[in-house]
Amino acid sequence: MSDPSLHADVPPSLVEARDVRVSLQGTEILHGVSLRASAGEVVALMGGNGSGKSTFVRGIVGAVPIASGAIDLFGSPAAPLTRARLGYVPQRITAAGGVSATAIEVVTSGLLGARETAGRTGSRLRGLVPPHDARARARAALASMGVEDLAKRDVSRLSGGQQQRVLIARALVREPRLLILDEPMAGVDLQSQVAFAHTLGHLKEDGVGILVVLHELGALARHIDRAVVLEQGCVTYDGVPPKDLGVHALPGHDHEHPHTDPPVREGGSLGLEGP
Ligand SMILES: Nc1ncnc2c1ncn2[C@@H]1O[C@H](COP(=O)(O)OP(=O)(O)OP(=O)(O)O)[C@@H](O)[C@H]1O
């Protein structure tokens, strides 16, 4: 990494990926992707289906190996210990996985393995048992997602959108400095999206860095500082988020269905620049 003192105006990054390549089953999926997010910054990772968004965030969290390049988390090379400090909500998984568990149990489980649990510094049990205030923290996390009333419900019987909110609460309960969300709004109704946008605003004010995979900026638009667009495993845009545009404006989008979005501009421009 370059000497930060040489760039005093650039805030230190919570995540910095440089020239990341990932191959899956013999095919290179990411062809040198770079991205950074700093404290208090919300970065939207956008792009058409199959452009590599999930593969990239899975590379950051260590779910797929990177073939080359580098990923720093909290200023150090990514490693299991540094990865344990981030909050991650993967794309479209069911909360319970067939196991019967209440929403509050699912959220409390987010505190297991966390290295920064309050009150247990130095304990051999640190990270292996939930902290004493786990249930109160889990309830607060559920409340921040507007689903406190679901605390005692079996997650396997919740709707997809409700499960998604419980999973976001599970990531939030660790109070991570960096939150990585893969399409958190998928299957979530508009009212809940607006509630989550408020939560996101508070997290941002608290200095949390957020990397969020989105197809549309939607309810989160006003909190997004920067958009990074992937196309076929390459970054084709990194800058000011587009206003009122979503994946329809991206070059990789399949334009078979009718809609009223502005056309993609000629000459390699993505039509994503601000107004
Ligand atoms: N385990 C895997 N093995 C082989 N190829 C894979 C695997 N996972 C993903 N891919 C391929 O990698 C490419 C990128 O997939 P990825 O899921 O990262 O895209 P995405 O941008 O997240 O798409 P979407 O918007 O549909 O979620 C696709 O061509 C996909 O088929």
Written account of the structure:
It contains 6 helices and 10 strands. By secondary structure, it is α/β, with parallel strands linked by helices. Helix content is 22%, strand content 23%. The chain is globular and about 45 Å long. The chain folds into 2 domains: 13-85 and 177-275, 3-Layer(aba) Sandwich (Rossmann fold), CATH 3.40.50; 95-175, no CATH class. 39% of the residues are buried. Strand 7 (178-182), helix 6 (190-205) and strand 8 (209-213) form a beta-alpha-beta unit. A 6-stranded mixed β-sheet has the order 6-7-8-3-9-10, sandwiched between helices. The chain has a 4-stranded antiparallel β-sheet with strand order 2-1-4-5, covered by helices on one side. It binds adenosine-5'-triphosphate. Adenosine-5'-triphosphate binds at residues 24-25, 29, 47, 49-55.
Features:
ATP-binding; ATP-binding cassette domain-containing protein; transport; 6 helices; Metal_Ion_Import_ABC; binds adenosine-5'-triphosphate; nucleotide-binding; alpha/beta; four-stranded antiparallel beta sheet; Rossmann fold
